Amino acid sequence: MSLTPAVPTLEGRSGVAVQFQGLHRYYGAVHALDGLDLDIAPGELVALLGPSGCGKTTALRALAGLDTPDAGRIVVDGRDITDVPANKRDMGMVFQAYSLFPNMTARDNVAYGLRLRGMDSQTRSRRADEMLDLVGLAKQGGRYSYQLSGGQQQRVALARALAIQPKVLLLDEPLSALDAKVRRVLRDEIRRIQIAVGTTTLFVTHDQEEALALGDRVGVMSNGRLEQIAAPMELYDRPRTPFVAEFVGLTNRIAGTASDGTVDVLGTRIPLLEGSTRSGKVSALVRPEAMRLAREDGAPARVIAISFLGSVCRAQVRLPDGNLVVAQMAAADATGLTPGAAVHVDVRPSPVFAVAD
Amino acid sequence: MSRRRRLPGSLARWAVIVLVGGYLILPLVSMLEFSTRGDLGTRSLDAWVAIGGDPNLVEAIITTLAIAALTVVGMLALLVPTMTWTYLRVPKLKRPVEFLCLLPLAIPAVVLVVGIVPIYSILTRATRGSPLVLVFIDIILVLPYAHRAIDAGLKSIDVITLAEAARSLGAGWPRVILQIIVPNLRGALLSASVIAVALVLGEFTISSLLNYDTLQVVINLLGKRDSYLSVAVSLAALLFAFVLIYGIAVVAGGKRRPVEESIEEGVA
Asked: Number of C-alpha atoms within 13 angstroms, CB side, residue B46?
């Protein structure tokens, strides 16, 4: 079974293809990259998602030339760049930490890469202004980094990275230092700009909402390996490994019995996803939105708490066996669900992943 | 009531200011008073005017300033690339470099001189006795202080991220150091330079032991011949150092404005 499905063709997008081929990286005893294989289509935005230490940043830094793999190859636009120094790779990078040069204005920061490419001052100043306009900071070109908010600094960093018309745009958790509201705004901005310029992009994050919202495909990494890479919806609905099923989104572990490609969960027979344990006692990994609650006097399950999240509500429910599960429903469907209410619980018959108990 | 409570604290503050101010300023005032004494209780600027008239003294001042300037250049050329490189590429060497730089603090000047005399006898012949060879030993003497200043500067900026950002934009290592790191260490480099200048202006032991006529050596000789002139020169040297430090503080700190004033609130 290949973990890397056919690389999608993104019509109308420019950019170059990127391939990681059997990449290994050791830090002492730690195997940070364990034979990473990954193909990125021209113009595609791939989000690498995983917990701290899974190797996602190492992979990005290897592509940037800021880290050297111990084995394997990196091929960009058909050319092996594994041994090419970082300053010769034509990669635009936005860092997690604020990385604007404090001695330069926003405009000079954006123009710096162009200056290194020998562009005359008038042209680079005009191009820098265009890039600042693209990220919505046309009027802040004369400001220094200490005169900009965190979000503005990251916008300038994005403009700086894009100004050199890089072969690949590398985003290393660029939103993690920002507050939630700014993060959401900037996330949408990045997606809009990336589609507009069509640059092949690798985005690294530990925030699954960000990864799912931004990526054409999302790769989930664990222990230096790519567990699965797929379109966000497929990744969420059809995880191929227990790690992906549990890491991406919220998951309830509910005891069930598997047989004949199905699992019996709370009285409902549900099809099993590929890669599941297919017989015997199992734990079914059920999404909160697949849980159904109905108020019913005398029912054995009890609502423990309700969380209002705007358009949806989440209810914590204690099952008769003592197991605590989370159910998610439209806010309108949560009427009458109060802490202590008796509820009947069942599960929608959409396919689930199951692991041996 | 509150006024009565505040009074002891306020008095204590003023007492401390007067004590410390007196401790620092009284010797300077005394020097000024002594160096302007004339005959029969009158005031005279003869000693101050004589500063420009003593050829040995003028030559010593020029020599010492030249040594100070070369020491600054040498110290920066030696320390900045070395320390930046250890921060960026070989952080394991930070401690050994720090240890080496601090060594001159632990070795008395007399011991240093004994160690370097054989080398300096060669250097003296090669440079025909030019006192500028003192630059080499002065660079060593300023290492502990300059290292501290530059180290503080490097710690105050995210050197690695800035360097990686510049590298990703296409800058080679020399450009990274000269165009990105050094401009952002301006304050630290100026501090290190001030310390170096101050140290060279005040250095006496090694120059004297190696028989070079630097400012402090000449002041000492003058003190034996003309104590008024000697004190006037000492005070002038101190004032020069103060002006230099003030000038550097203005140059280093004059550009930035408070962040709070300039960030537009609520803008992502």
From this structure: 10
Structure tokens at A64: 């940037």
Could you write out the DSSP letters of every residue in A233-273?
Answer: HHHHHS-SSHHHHHHSS--EEEEEEEETTEEEETTEEEEBP
Mutate to test the interface with A, among B167, B169, B175 (most CBs of A within 10 A): B169
Question: ipTM of the predicted structure?
Answer: 0.84
Whether B167 sits inside 8 A of A95 (CB atoms) is no
Q: What is the DSSP string of B20-75?
A: HHHHHHHHHHHHHHHHTB-GGG-B--HHHHHHHH-HHHHHHHHHHHHHHHHHHHHH
Give the SS3 label for residue A6.
coil
Q: Considering the entire predicted model, what is its pTM?
A: 0.80
B259/A275 Cα distance (integer angstroms): 55
pLDDT digits (tens, 9 = 90+) for B62-100: 899 899 999 999 999 999 999 999 999 899 999 999 999
Q: Which two tokens stand for residue B187?
A: 């304050």
The nearest CA of chain A is from the CA of B185 a distance in Å of: 10
* CB spacing of B184 vs A161 below 8 angstroms: no
Q: What residues in A contact B161, CB-CB < 8 Å?
A: 95, 97-99
Task: Give the closest residue to A59 by CA, choosing from A215, A172, A148, A160.
Answer: A172
- Contact map slice: A 146-175 vs B, CB within 8 A: 146-149, 151-152, 155, 157, 160-161, 164, 170
